[in-house]
């Protein structure tokens, strides 16, 4: 039984997504749009909005309410069409999301890791389709399970003007697609339900190892997978050509697209965090099929990840599967005997068959265009990551503010420092508490957030530390309240979209929907979303507009993580601004109660510690023991520590905590750390922290 028809996943008990009242949406839109635009431009837009409210809006609103009565979710079909199926952008670069998982507890071979993942995913599918999967809930509140019907055996197909998604029945999707060295294979796995798990994993591992050992690299000019990274119109033309070349191509393509899911056995071995993120995002494009519902990515060095097609499932839904898979890997990685060791059971017949394709000159031309597009797009993009470990959720909560809203304000300040203005900013808010609910746009920019950014950057000397802190707190409250409204179905953007879609085909479009301010207010130069889960080591996606950034972030207990993608707009530089913004905001919220002379005393303490350590580093030192650790302070250093502890004149107490923190480092490292810290205070914090009080 498919999840869609199983009574355990029925949506009938959930409330329906409400249609917001017109006046509420207009009021919220005005408040959200006003700080983004010049007064004259904004007022012209408002005039059009008032005319719309007095004419077409009531009729369209009535149609929306009629639709809400007739449909389980009035928005679902329109949103899927608008956001996904009519979107002609590349799935790889602009739609799909990726996860990179944390390291395994112990090293695993590529074949074994992939085998555990395949076995785990198939067992998850069995649990899902049997109706035994525990219902999603947040703090005891039931969430909609509708998206799970698209998790397995699903593939998006490009259309001439509109894409569509096909869900394949169980009898046609009992196999798993394998990608390796540019080639695709269909791996038929016997039912795992009721079988010995370790034996099942061993059998899958043998098949995968045989693929790894025997597969020759396919030349890139014949890669079928890279076609799915193209713009959708180009992929549609290429797919039609592919199908016309031979009947065998149609059979191979159907086997690939009807698979339960795809596993990519990658040849790459990403090591740095940035390399890992980029490999999960797009890799080299040949061992992927971006139209598949999801792809499990297994790299040659034992790292692994996930790439999800976004049209009918959201990342929060796929995280349920991902948590189960990571749990399986970590529980079983030391339990499965090697399928290839001496004494292992004899290998059965190879059940993986290569999906072969025939080529024509036209098809090869399509592939070359896809390669050129892929390579040019990779060159034209910049993916940067920020691993911020100075503080995280625990410390932000001690400041008595929302961690998510805190990070949203940091992104606004970082963008303002780089570009001189705050852009329209999208944060995804979930509406899964409603039947067939997906998301709403939480607009995190407000009058208070823009005023605060201006205070911090343009005229820092005109307001006190306390005034800046209070404005930041109000901006954070505004963002939290708006997000809560969105989760209750009272957002702005989905309602405005519904009003536009409620127009009949022969009716002219109201002028408000083509107004420059209206359009710019939802041109998301900052597209952001948070998923915070300890299983993740990477998470991200691409920008949604050509002149914008895609920023995925994770908020952990003692760290913050960002993945920033743009078309060479300065992703790495924005990460540096983000780091500065986070440090400045902590300084602001923790020091707002202090007087300027108190802050200056701390700065003087830093300067004195720096001066003392410089003096000590230039003085002759006693020889170190040959057995001493070069990375720690020796016993001889303890006397030096006492000497510089006593050398401070202004405020030894204020300096003590700094010394405790820094004396564990070698003197050269202490000098570097203190110079950095002193620079932070003087060049950033004191610049705006110490004006005359207001």
Describe the structure.
This protein is of the alpha+beta class and 694 residues long. An eight-stranded mixed β-sheet has the order 11-7-6-8-9-10-1-16, with helices on both faces. It has a six-stranded mixed β-sheet with strand order 12-18-17-15-13-14, sandwiched between helices. Helix 1 runs antiparallel to helix 2, helix 14 (403-419) packs across helix 15 (447-457) and helix 15 packs antiparallel against helix 16 (465-487). 45% of the residues are buried.
Percentage of β-strand residues: 5-15%
Distance from N terminus to C terminus (CA atoms, Å) equals 68 Å
The tally of beta strands, per DSSP, is 18
Number of separate helices? 23
Major sheet = 8 strands, mixed
Residues in helix, %: 40-55%
Low-pLDDT sequence parts: 341-347, 623-650, 679-685
Shape: globular
Cα-based radius of gyration, to the nearest Å: 28 Å
Overall structural class, as computed from helix and strand content, comes to alpha+beta
Mean pLDDT over the full residue set: 88
Q: If strands are numbered along the chain, what order do they take across the biggest sheet? A: 11-7-6-8-9-10-1-16
């Amino acid at each position: 039984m498919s999840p869609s028809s199983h009574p355990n996943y029925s949506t009938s008990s959930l409330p329906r997504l409400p249609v917001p009242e017109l006046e509420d949406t207009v009021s919220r839109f005005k408040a959200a749009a006003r700080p983004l635009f010049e007064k004259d431009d904004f007022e012209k837009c408002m005039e059009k909005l008032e005319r719309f409210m007095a004419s077409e809006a009531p009729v369209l609103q009535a149609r929306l309410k009629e639709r809400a009565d007739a449909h389980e979710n009035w928005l679902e079909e329109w949103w899927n069409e608008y956001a996904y199926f009519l979107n002609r952008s590349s799935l790889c670069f602009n739609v799909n999301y990726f996860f990179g998982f944390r390291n395994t507890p112990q090293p695993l071979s590529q074949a074994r890791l992939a085998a555990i993942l395949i076995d785990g995913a198939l067992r998850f599918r069995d649990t899902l389709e049997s109706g035994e999967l525990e219902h999603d809930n947040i703090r005891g509140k039931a969430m909609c399970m509708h998206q799970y019907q698209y998790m397995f055996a699903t593939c998006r197909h490009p259309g001439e003007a509109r894409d569509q998604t096909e869900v394949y029945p169980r009898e046609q999707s009992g196999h798993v697609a394998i990608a390796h060295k540019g080639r695709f294979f269909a791996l038929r796995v016997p039912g795992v339900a009721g079988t010995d798990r370790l034996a099942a994993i061993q059998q899958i591992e043998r098949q995968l190892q045989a693929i790894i050992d025997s597969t020759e690299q396919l030349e890139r000019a014949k890669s079928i997978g890279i076609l799915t990274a193209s713009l959708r119109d180009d992929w549609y033309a290429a797919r039609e050509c592919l199908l016309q070349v031979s009947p065998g191509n149609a059979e191979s393509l159907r086997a690939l697209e009807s698979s339960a899911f795809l596993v990519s056995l990658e040849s790459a071995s990403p090591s740095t965090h940035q390399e890992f993120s980029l490999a999960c995002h797009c890799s080299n494009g040949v061992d992927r099929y971006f139209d598949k519902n999801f792809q499990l990515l297994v790299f040659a060095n034992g790292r692994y990840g996930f790439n999800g097609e976004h049209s009918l499932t959201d990342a929060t839904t796929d995280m349920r599967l991902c948590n189960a898979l990571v749990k399986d890997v970590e529980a079983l990685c030391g339990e499965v005997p090697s399928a290839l060791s001496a004494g292992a059971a004899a290998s059965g017949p190879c059940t993986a068959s290569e999906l072969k394709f025939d080529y024509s000159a036209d098809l090869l031309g399509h592939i070359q265009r896809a390669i050129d597009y892929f390579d040019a797009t990779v060159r034209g993009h910049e993916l940067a990551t920020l691993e911020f470990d100075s503080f995280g959720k625990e410390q932000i909560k001690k400041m008595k503010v929302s961690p998510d809203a805190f990070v949203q304000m940091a992104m606004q300040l970082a963008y303002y420092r780089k570009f001189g203005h705050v852009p329209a900013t999208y944060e995804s808010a979930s509406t899964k508490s409603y039947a067939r609910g997906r998301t709403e746009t939480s607009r995190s920019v407000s009058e208070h957030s823009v005023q605060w950014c201006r205070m911090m950057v343009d005229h820092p000397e005109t307001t006190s530390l306390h005034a800046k802190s209070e404005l930041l707190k109000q901006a954070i409250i505004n963002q939290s309240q708006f997000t809560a409204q969105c989760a209750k179905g009272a957002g702005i953007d989905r309602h405005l979209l519904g009003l536009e879609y409620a127009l009949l085909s022969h009716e002219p479009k109201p002028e408000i929907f083509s107004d420059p301010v209206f359009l710019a207010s939802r041109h998301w130069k900052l597209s952001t979303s948070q998923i915070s889960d300890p299983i993740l080591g990477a998470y991200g996606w691409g920008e949604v507009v050509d002149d914008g950034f895609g920023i995925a972030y994770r908020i952990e207990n003692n760290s913050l993580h960002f993945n920033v993608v743009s078309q060479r707009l300065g992703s790495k530089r924005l990460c540096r601004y983000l780091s500065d913004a986070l440090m400045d905001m902590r300084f602001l919220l923790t020091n707002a109660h202090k007087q300027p002379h108190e802050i200056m005393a701390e700065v003087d303490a830093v300067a004195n510690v720096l001066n003392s350590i410089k003096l000590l580093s230039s003085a002759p030192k006693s020889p170190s023991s040959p057995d001493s650790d070069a990375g720690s302070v020796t016993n001889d250093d303890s006397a030096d520590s006492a000497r510089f502890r006593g050398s401070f004149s202004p405020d030894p107490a204020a300096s003590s905590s700094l010394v405790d923190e820094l004396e564990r480092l070698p003197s050269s490292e202490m000098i570097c750390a203190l110079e950095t810290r002193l620079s932070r205070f003087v060049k950033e914090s004191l610049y705006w922290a110490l004006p005359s009080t207001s």
